[in-house]
């Protein structure tokens, strides 16, 4: 209780219409004003790292891309890159360009999808249906290249599993032209509409100082004017050969304010940037093999006796992310595999963005970092009294899950 003012707590989540994944934030309010926000993740842990450390390196590739349904390509890329660094496998020149094309197509897909989610959070479902309709075009292209609309299974150690041949170029051009033609309409909807501007301008502000202090990543901090992009800072794949620059609001005549509007602007402008990068890749793509390790049996035998450690780091649509991999000679499976997703960094930026805002703005502020709880959550059980971490075996965790389900069913029966 603050003198002269009543404060009360409102928990949002872990299951709530404004949240697309299990997540919880405890808010303290003075009337409609937010005076404190305390995020509580850890409710969507799927044990992917644990499963990966009980498989040989090749079998982890399809598991890695299932870390996230939207950013499946980048997680597969980070895992394969980390292992390539660990055992000195060099991807072919052609595969570097194919990887870049796929990653930029996924960035278009991710940003268009986010725009629909953001519109939904502030009540503009017509805009959501429009953006999700145009999202189908890039998904069709991803399916044409890889055979899948989700989880594309393109990566392998030393390159990619599928080529982008010349007969695919017309469809790539058609898709990119489709988004070029629609872009002005998309920008007018999200940046020009007075109602949306009112809901996003000066809402959820993250200053440049706070963005740097809290180590945020991706569009979340580029909207604040922070020039941070792994594709430029430590380029990988074909990015060293391409022309690109940091996407920040001031490049386009806007203030680097760090509000929801600024983050929206960055994501929309990155769609155009991705189109340009794909066109550069198609134009510059070299001839040659798509993988340096075509013999999978020989590759697996090499990996089972290898030792070393490596890191795969890249700029996912949500921002910088990385995978760490370690192999040892006495273990045929992956000895250690750790994932750090973009949301892990950006979660800390919630506190300054929520402070002083209205309760009605909670959904759009929560969405503005484009959170992915499934690829962020890590879990360990700690005794609150002693602070001692407890470890459970696979069988013990299974038994706890069975018991929990029984308890829930008994509650439903009553």
Write the layout of secondary structure elements.
Layout lengths: L7 E5 L11 E7 L2 E8 L7 H5 L4 H8 L7 H16 L5 H29 L3 H22 L8 E2 L2 E2 L8 H24 L1 H7 L7 H6 L5 H4 L7 H4 L26 H25 L11 H9 L3 E9 L2 E10 L2 E10 L1 H5 L3 H5 L7 H6 L5 H4 L4 E2 L6 E2 L3 H20 L1
Antiparallel strand pairs: 1-2, 2-3, 4-5, 6-7, 7-8, 9-10
Helix pairs in contact: 2-3, 4-5, 4-11, 5-6, 6-11
What would you note in describing this structure?
The chain is built from 17 helices and 10 strands. The strands form 4 sheets. Strands 1-2-3 form a 3-stranded antiparallel sheet. Strands 6-7-8 form a 3-stranded antiparallel sheet. The protein has a domain at 58-342: Cytochrome-c3 Hydrogenase, chain B (Orthogonal Bundle). It has helices spanning 48-52, 57-64, 72-87, 93-121, 125-146, 169-192, 194-200, 208-213, 219-222, 230-233, 260-284, 296-304, 342-346, 350-354, 362-367, 373-376, 394-413, and strands spanning 8-12, 24-30, 33-40, 155-156, 159-160, 308-316, 319-328, 331-340, 381-382, 389-390. The model has no long low-confidence stretch (mean pLDDT 90). A hairpin with a 6-residue loop joins strand 9 (381-382) and strand 10 (389-390). The protein is of the alpha+beta class and 414 residues long.
* Strand residue percentage: 5-15%
Structural class: alpha+beta
Distance from first to last alpha carbon: 38 Å
Q: Please, how many helices?
A: 17
Report the principal-axis shape. globular
Uncertain residue segments = none
Number of strands: 10
CATH fold group of the domain at 58-342: Cytochrome-c3 Hydrogenase, chain B
Taken in chain order, the helices and strands follow as EEEHHHHHEEHHHHHHHEEEHHHHEEH
Assign the CATH superfamily of the domain at 58-342.
Answer: Cytochrome-c3 Hydrogenase, chain B
Strand order of the largest sheet: 1-2-3
**Broad CATH class of the domain at 58-342:** Mainly Alpha
Alpha carbon gyration radius: 22 Å
Measured as a percent range, the helix fraction is 40-55%
């Amino acid at each position: 209780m603050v003198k002269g003012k009543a404060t009360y707590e409102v928990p949002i989540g872990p299951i709530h219409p404004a949240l697309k994944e299990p997540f919880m934030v405890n808010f303290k309010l003075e009337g409609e004003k937010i005076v404190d926000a305390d995020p509580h993740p850890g409710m969507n842990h799927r044990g992917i790292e644990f499963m990966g450390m009980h498989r040989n390196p090749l079998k982890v590739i399809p598991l890695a891309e299932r870390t996230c349904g939207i950013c499946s390509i980048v997680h597969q890329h980070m895992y394969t890159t980390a292992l390539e660094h660990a055992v000195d496998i060099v991807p072919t020149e052609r595969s570097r360009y194919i990887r870049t094309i796929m990653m930029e197509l996924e960035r278009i897909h991710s940003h268009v999808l986010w725009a629909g989610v953001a519109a939904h959070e502030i009540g503009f479902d017509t805009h959501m249906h429009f953006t999700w309709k145009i999202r189908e075009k890039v998904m069709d292209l991803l399916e044409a290249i890889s055979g899948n609309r989700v989880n594309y299974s393109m990566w392998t150690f030393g390159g990619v599993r599928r080529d982008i041949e010349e007969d695919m170029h017309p469809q790539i051009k058609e898709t990119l032209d489709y988004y070029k033609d629609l872009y002005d309409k998309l920008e007018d909807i999200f940046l020009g509409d007075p109602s949306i501007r009112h809901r996003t301008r000066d809402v959820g502000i993250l200053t440049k100082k706070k963005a740097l202090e809290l180590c945020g990543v991706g569009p979340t901090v580029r909207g604040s004017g922070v020039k941070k992009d792994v594709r430029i800072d430590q380029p990988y794949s074909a990015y060293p050969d391409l022309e690109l620059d940091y996407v920040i609001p001031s490049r386009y005549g806007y203030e680097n304010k760090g509000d929801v509007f600024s983050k929206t602007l960055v994501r929309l402008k990155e769609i155009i940037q991705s189109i340009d990068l794909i066109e550069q890749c198609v134009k510059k793509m070299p001839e040659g093999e798509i993988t340096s390790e075509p013999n999978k049996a020989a590759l697996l035998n090499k990996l089972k006796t290898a030792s070393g450690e490596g890191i795969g780091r890249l700029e996912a649509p949500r921002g910088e992310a990385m995978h760490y991999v370690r192999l040892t000679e006495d273990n045929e499976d992956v000895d250690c595999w750790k994932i750090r997703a973009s949301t892990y960094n950006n979660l800390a930026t919630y506190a300054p963005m929520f402070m002083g805002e209205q309760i009605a703005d909670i959904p759009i502020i929560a969405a503005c970092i484009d959170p992915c709880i499934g690829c962020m959550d890590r879990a360990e059980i700690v005794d609150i009294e002693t602070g001692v971490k407890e470890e459970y075996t696979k069988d013990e965790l299974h038994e706890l899950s069975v018991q929990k389900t029984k308890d829930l069913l008994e509650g439903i029966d009553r």
